[in-house]
Amino acid sequence: MANLVGACGQAGKLPCERGVASNNAGELLSGGVRFRDGDEEIRHHIGVCAFSQYTIVDQASVVKVPRELPAEIAALFGCAMITGGGALMNDAQPKSGDTIMVVGVGGVGLATILMALTIKEATVIAVDGLQNKLEHALAIGAHKAMTPAEVIEKGVKADVVIEAAGNVKAFETGVKALAVGGTLVTVSLPKASDMAEISPQQLTAGGRTLRGSYMGSAVPNVDIPKYVELYQAGKLPLEHLVSSYIELDEINEAMDRLANGSELRQIIRF
Asked: What terms describe the molecular function in GO for this protein (predicted)?
């Protein structure tokens, strides 16, 4: 069994720019398109085209996982886990006892929370505007759950903030919540034209750090085996990320539910 992910590269190499270029072009990492409908080319989505019964992938986009790992769990080690977990561990690099805030509690945000709960003596705060997502975050172990307005009104601060909401207001909330010396890592992709308003003085005077993280700055064939090991040890219960199971012909409705925030991760059963 193998898990299919949009891999950035291999251990010891940094070809992420090549991965981004191939993703934008709708091609495989090795170049070109392998799907066609008659004479019409059908572009590859993030290298894997997972919304299809059969697919063709580049070898570099495949990561081997243990045969006994259920396929429905293996799928979660792609974007959900390497994006959220990777942003926390590879980019933010929290310390024991840190307060970790996750702004945006969708699939990626919840994956971040699960990873944060593996940090010794960390306090984990979930932030979202939807009550059902805050309740889910508490159910999987988050120590506190708050709306963005509550964070600002109460002046809540965190050593590490992971922003995974995908909008500028969430980013700005995360920046305001940064403690002195804190680090914010954003993994979201709002519109390129969207602009945030922040104070450079807040960064300078407080020694705060802002950084971006694409796919968790992960090297999939290095990071995914680590996360699988945590899952098998019972420390990373990814099944909590799944909100429903769907058939392939439900994909359009599933995308609508994802957009309106009523779902977390939906698993397609073929």
From this structure: alcohol dehydrogenase (NAD+) activity
DSSP 161: E
Compute CA distances 197 → 4, 34, 67, 158, 172, whole Å.
37, 43, 48, 20, 7
Residue 213 and residue 171: Cα distance in Å, rounded? 13
Residue 267 phi/psi, 5° resolution? Answer: -100, 130
**Predicted confidence (pLDDT) per residue in 131-189, tens digit:** 999 999 999 999 999 999 999 999 999 999 999 998 999 999 999 999 999 999 999 88
CB of 55 within 8 A of CB of 47?
A: no
pTM: 0.86
pLDDT tens readout for residues 68-114: 999 889 989 988 899 999 999 999 999 999 999 999 999 999 999 99
Burial of residue 218, with CB atoms counted within 10 A of its CB: 0-12 exposed, 13-18 middle, 19 or more buried: buried
CB 109 within 8 A of CB 126: yes
